[in-house]
Amino acid sequence: MAKVVILSGAGISAESGISTFRDSGGLWEEYDISVVCNYDSLVKHEDLTIEFYDKRRAEIEDKEPNYAHKIIKELKDRYKHDIAVITQNVDNLFEKAGMRVEDVIHLHGFMPTVRCRDEECAKVYDIGYKALSSFNDGKCPECGTKLRPNIVFFGEAAPMYERLNAEIQDCQFFVVIGTSGNVIEVNSTAAFCDYAILNNLEASSAIAERDFDKVIYDKASNAIDIIADDIESFLQES
Ligand code: NAD
Ligand code: ZN
Q1: Number of domains in the chain
Q2: Residues with CB under 5 A from ligand 2 (ion)
């Protein structure tokens, strides 16, 4: 297990032009999230749900990673086994920054891929930025079942949480960037590990500042050099 865990959320991609829930704007305001992001969305509102994710997939095509993604990529290159990069984001900006797919743990799915709806088959296909229906008529090439966005909807199981739990159990140095802490609870890990850093734009009611050793309310691209220095000092001393 890695000594350092870097957990990011929508805020790390905000400077790349992908809106967070809170900032709203763009696609999040055009659609009712409870209608298109729920466990029963594909049954109750199939067309609308597929359309929402088609638009979000198309939206990320021209988005570029920012300085924070790039510095995290460099850190991971340098300390491959000592750092785990875990994100709630479904965009591919870490991958666009040059990270290998297997080096980024996506807790809530990955937008450029779609998945067979048959849970036994569950094959995953990379369709890039295209609409789901443009790939093999929206059906699984393996078994013919309809495909779905490879996204964890509200109320669905999130298989990658097992990886998160395994990593945070042994984590010594915890970094939280760009997440309000509403979906994933961060306080107990921050309190438990040796050192914890929080970087958001502003305080969140779901995050206890006292559990963190350092709190930086600033853009991730401004905070990341300080964070990287602290991680390097920690790893060189340990
Ligand atoms: P959130 O919207 O609840 O909170 C965003 C946090 O980022 C806030 O605390 C804010 O202060 C901070 N922030 C905003 N701009 C920042 C910046 N430039 N630098 C540093 N911090 C900044 O986001 P969340 O906690 O990730 O939860 C939202 C859920 O929605 C997640 O589960 C995620 O999967 C999904 N989501 C993903 C994306 C994406 O893939 N890029 C975008 C929106 C939502
Ligand atoms: Zn299938």
Answers
A1: 2
A2: 116, 118, 121, 123, 140, 142-143, 145
